[in-house]
């Protein structure tokens, strides 16, 4: 895949970039290694000063970087502005909390004495240069939820971003440089996927984090495993959205529309499978389908647009194949089901797909098993909680889940039995710097954000002092 900015709203190639050669890659890894030796010795106050300065600059740049993200991957401009603001918020959160999150921990005095020590503690120390392999769908946020905690912990970062968002990737390097970070603390590597293995095998690179597809995660994890290097993986998701009899059905349906179509439906944590109790199925289906049908599809640069194009022609083709397979095998299309009509101004050449609701899904259909990365929802009718939970877990993924109920016993049951990294009641899945984020099963392992995330790339060190 070429490293290029291609506007998904009209298919126009705006800029292309040459990949770094081996000599330049080596130079940048060396710079990251040198920078780590210095950055690791700085105190939290200095790290917080730099990160807060970067957050201030990001706020100043919000409109420009939002337009860049929209041009490169097609998210509505309003969503791009919100993504930039969320990144600045997370940067300030880590600047304020990192020292506390990484403070020395002291075991119980009786246990210390029993170990034969006069005193003991646990200290969190940085590891070194970390490779971040990041996706295009949230091109700023996905990177920042790694970069902010990693830099506050004293690590340095090497970013291999998706090849279709090179200008956003270069902006991130420039942002940290303008904030005053020493050379090498955070760098972008404009390289193709074929060059990732050599970077990860370099002994100066100590760990990796990846957000992306299951095949990409498997590839990075296998190389890192061979090198015995730490990895954190956040991969795909096919999140269930359960609606049970006691739910606020109108509220659930409104939220379901947003949960399915956020970021043009291209989100790992977007609700994708809507599992609805038969007692409220008809009302939910009517409201949800009407909401999906009413969405405005069009130019992502227009503030009135709610759903923009998919990020690539291949991505749309993959989605079309899933929908066509389902329809061919008997699924019913409640709305959408194809490319939108009546687009003009060059948009007819863009990679748009109409918000779609399918029902009558069976296990024989690919869409029952595979992740749908676009504004397509599958709707299921169930007769009870047991059936709902069983269907929710009938997937190889386990990123997050959504449950609408007012029944405390049902809540407890779902927390106990749903196989996911998160359970969100009466709302939709979202990430926040204070809450750990990640999945189970083939959605990956490890956690980002909160104290769990900042400690992933730390050396948890036992410090023991003899009597």
TrEMBL record:
Keywords on record: NADP, Oxidoreductase
Highest rank taxon of the organism: Bacteria
| A Pfam cross-reference name | Aldedh
Q: Where is the Aldehyde dehydrogenase domain?
A: 3-463
Q: Which InterPro entries match?
A: Ald_DH/histidinol_DH, Ald_DH_C, Ald_DH_N, Aldehyde_DH_dom, ALDH_GabD1-like, GABD/Sad-like
Keyword NADP among record annotations: yes
Q: What Gene Ontology molecular-function terms does this entry list?
A: aldehyde dehydrogenase [NAD(P)+] activity; succinate-semialdehyde dehydrogenase (NAD+) activity
Q: Does the keyword NADP apply?
A: yes
What family is this?
Answer: Belongs to the aldehyde dehydrogenase family.
Q: What is this protein called?
A: NADP-dependent succinic semialdehyde dehydrogenase
